[in-house]
Amino acid sequence: MRRGTLTMESSIVGIEGAKEAVPLTAADRRAVRMALLGAVIGTTVEWYDFYLYATAAAAIFNHLFFPNMSPLAGTMSAYATALIGFLVRPLGAIFFGHYGDRIGRKRVLVITLVLMGGATTLMGLLPTQAAIGIWAPILLTLLRAVQGFGAGAEYAGAVLVAIEYAPRGRQGLYGAIPYMGVAAGLLLATVVFGLFSALPPAQFESWGWRMPFLFSAIVVMIGLVLRLRLRETPVFEQLERLGHRSKRPIAEVFKLCRREILCAWGARIGDNSLAYVYDSFVIVYCTQDLQLPKTMILSALAIAAAVQFVTVPLFGALTDRIGRRTVYVIGAILSGICVFPLFWALDTRSAVWITLALVAASSGAKTMMTAAQGPWFAGLFPARLRFSGFAIAREVTSPLAGGLAPIVATGLLAANAGSPTYVCFYVVGLAALTTVSLLLAPATSRDLAVPD
What we know:
Elements: H1 9-12, H2 26-59, H3 61-65, H4 71-102, H5 105-123, H6 129-132, H7 135-151, H8 154-164, H9 171-176, H10 179-197, H11 201-208, H12 210-229, H13 234-242, H14 249-256, H15 258-289, H16 294-322, H17 324-347, H18 351-380, H19 386-395, H20 405-415, H21 421-440
Helix pairs in contact: 2-4, 2-5, 2-8, 2-10, 2-12, 2-15, 4-5, 4-7, 4-19, 5-7, 5-8, 5-12, 8-19, 10-16, 15-16, 15-17, 15-18, 15-19, 15-20, 15-21, 16-17, 16-18, 17-18, 17-21, 18-19, 20-21
C-alpha cells in the first residue's frame, strides 16, 4: 500500500466523499493477508504463554515452586502467581493503549510480542525452589508480571489491525479471526505440554516441563518477522494525514465513552472467567478431584481448541449478518446453560462425553461470545480512541475475571466438599452479568474503516 493513499475498499468508502469502492490490488491483498497472519501469530503467542502458564500452575508449579505446601495450598499459590499477570494487564492496556493511538498499532504490537515471548522463554530457564529457595517463586512472579504487562494490549492491537484492513461487510469476520490465535495458543499449549508431561515423572520434573516454555521463542521469532514487515493500518495512516490523532486518548476515553466502558467491563467479565473455568479449572477438577489422567483432559481440550478453527470464523461471519451484540448475547445465554451439562459429563469420567461437552461449551457457547467480542469492542469507540478504549475495556476486568476465576472456582469446589454445584452457579451469575451489560450498551453500527 502507498503511504497516505487509501487504496483498499474498506478504507476509501465513506472517506473524503468517495462514492464507489476501489477494487483491491495485488499489493492490497498481500497487505490484508500479512495483517491477518500477523494478528493471529501474535495472539497465538499471547495465549500460548497464558494457557501454558495456567496448565503448568495446575499440574507442576505447585511441586517445583511451592513444595512445602499441601497439594491444594500449592495449587492455590501457583494460581496466585498467575493472578499477578492479570493484575498488571490493565497497566499494560493503559500504557500501550495510549501509544497505540499516538504512534500507531504496528510499533506497539512489536513491543508487546517481545515482552510476552521473552518472559515466557525465561521461565523455561528459571531455577526451581530446590535450587535457589525463595528467589524461585519471586522470579517466577516477576516474569509473570512482565508477561502480563505486554499482554495488556496485544489482543486489542491484533483485532484492530485485522479490522482496519478489512473489506466492508466483513469487519465482523476479520475482527473475529485473531481469536483463532487464542485457539491456536490453547492447542499448542495443551499439545506441547501434554507431550512432555508423558515423560517419566522424574524427567518431566527435571527438564521436561521447561521445553514448552522455551518453545515460545520460535513462535515469537516468526511473529516478529511478520510484524516488522507489516505496514501501519490504513485507518491510522489517515488519522495521521488528517491530523486527527488524539493527544490524550486515555483521558478522552473516560470523558467521552463512560457508558461504553462500563458496559464493556460488564460484558467482559463473563467470557473471560468462562475461558479459565472451561480451559484451566477443568484440569484441576479432573486430575485432582476425579483422579483422571492428565492426558485425557488435555486431549479433550486440544480437540475443543481445534474445533474453534471452524467456529470462530463461522461466528465472526454471523456477526456481519445479524449483528455483533446479538451473537454476543446468544453466546452468553448458552454459556450459562451449558455449565451444568459440562460438569455432569466430566463426572461420567468418559473421555467421549468429556470431549463432546467441552466442544459444546468451549468451542460453541464460549467461542460465540469471544468471536463477537473483538468487533463489538472496536465498534464502541471512534478510531482516534480505538486502541485505548478497546484495551481498557477488555483488560481492566482481567484481575476480577480471568485472574480470579480459577482461584474462586477452586475455593468454591473445596467449600462444597468437592461438588461443582457452587462453581456452576458462579458461572451462571457471570453469564447473566454479561447479558445485562450487553443489553444496556449503546448500538455499535459505525463503519470501522472510517477514522472518525
